[in-house]
Write a structure and sequence with these properties.
The chain is an all-alpha fold. The chain is built from 4 helices and no strands.
């Protein structure tokens, strides 16, 4: 399955959770409610720990991807900068020869590049702010699990009060 974590640690966690699940035997007698509460708390704790681990792994994966993509962008920017410097020099010299004033050609060329660079940087900052780096599914899953745990505890409380 694509995207499935198969590291030894994650496999051990899954196997441990499966073993714990098969070891559970319903208890007989009066401590059924106590055992039920204990199982509920243990399951909730395990679920929250697994969800936190999932979020940690997803965030790590996002940051690794961001670092690799950033390195490619940086390398491309360095090569583009050299090319743009050559073109800017040629443009400035061409405008200088045309206007019979090299300083004016350099000023026009520099001003044009500053304007275009400012527009591009503004767009990049705007897009980065709106994009977000955290995955949404694990965070939504944590919220759903919190709601599930609240519902279970409320049902358990109602069951206890009805038994009295």
């Amino acid at each position: 399955m694509p995207g499935t974590d198969t590291t030894p640690e994650s496999v051990d966690r899954v196997e441990t959770a499966e073993i714990r699940e098969t070891e559970r035997v319903p208890s007989e007698g009066g401590d059924g409610l106590g055992r039920l509460l204990k199982d509920l708390m243990e399951d909730t704790r395990t679920l929250v720990q697994q969800e936190i681990e999932l979020v940690r792994m997803e965030v790590g994966r996002s940051f690794r991807r961001l670092a690799v993509d950033g390195a490619w962008i940086w390398a491309g920017a360095v090569v583009l900068t050299v090319g743009l410097l050559c073109l800017a020099l040629a443009l400035a010299l061409g405008l200088g020869a045309l206007l019979d004033s090299y300083w004016l050609g350099a000023l026009i060329t520099g001003g044009t590049f500053l304007l275009v660079g400012a527009i591009l940087a503004w767009r990049g900052v705007r897009d980065l702010r709106s994009g977000g780096l955290l995955p949404s599914n694990p965070l939504e899953s944590l919220q759903e699990n919190r709601e599930w745990a609240r519902r279970e505890l409320n049902e358990l409380k109602q069951g206890i009060t009805e038994e009295r």
